[in-house]
Design goal:
Layout lengths: L1 H19 L1 H20 L8 E2 L9 H12 L10 H13 L17 E2 L1 H39 L1
Antiparallel strand pairs: 1-2
């Protein structure tokens, strides 16, 4: 009977942990899709170069995401045929909000300016990094819970 209760507790904890962060991960995956749409519709020649944060440290990820979001508003459509798609995609991008996870010493202007497609590639890479980090934390929390259950069961 004890084993059955422990098994049920393990199942409950692991299923709860797996559903805790998916909304956040899904949101970042939608952001990644939005960036991919922008990459196919953005003008890359004769345009303003954009400050492009690359490889931000953990405390600066929020600042980097915000820089990318504000920088993306300066992008221009490649031609008039993609203008409506481009505008709609930028509206979608504006809706995303990022949670501040720390303080950062650098500012957006401290980063090198790059062409729009390079800017968007760096933005996509950062979003992928955030997705991987959030996925790892979910698994870590599940393992902590399982470990705690086993420790409690022994005593």
């Amino acid at each position: 009977m004890e084993r059955m209760i422990i098994l049920c507790m393990l199942f409950f904890c692991s299923s709860t942990g797996l559903t805790a962060a998916p909304h956040k991960i899904v949101t970042y995956k939608q952001l990644l899709k939005t960036i991919n749409v922008l990459q196919t519709t953005v003008k890359d020649t004769d345009v303003e170069l954009l400050h492009t944060p690359e490889n931000p440290v953990d405390g600066c990820i929020f600042m980097a995401l915000t820089c990318f979001q504000h920088g993306a508003l300066k992008l221009q459509p490649e031609n008039s045929q993609v203008n409506s798609t481009f505008i709609q995609t930028l509206k979608t991008l504006k809706k995303f909000t990022f949670r501040n996870t720390g303080t950062c010493e650098s500012s957006c202007e401290s980063h090198e300016k790059k062409k729009p497609k390079v800017f968007l590639t760096s933005f996509a890479n950062l979003v992928r990094k955030v997705i991987r980090a959030d996925s790892c934390w979910v698994l870590f929390n599940i393992l902590q819970t399982i470990t705690a259950i086993f420790i409690l069961h022994r005593f």
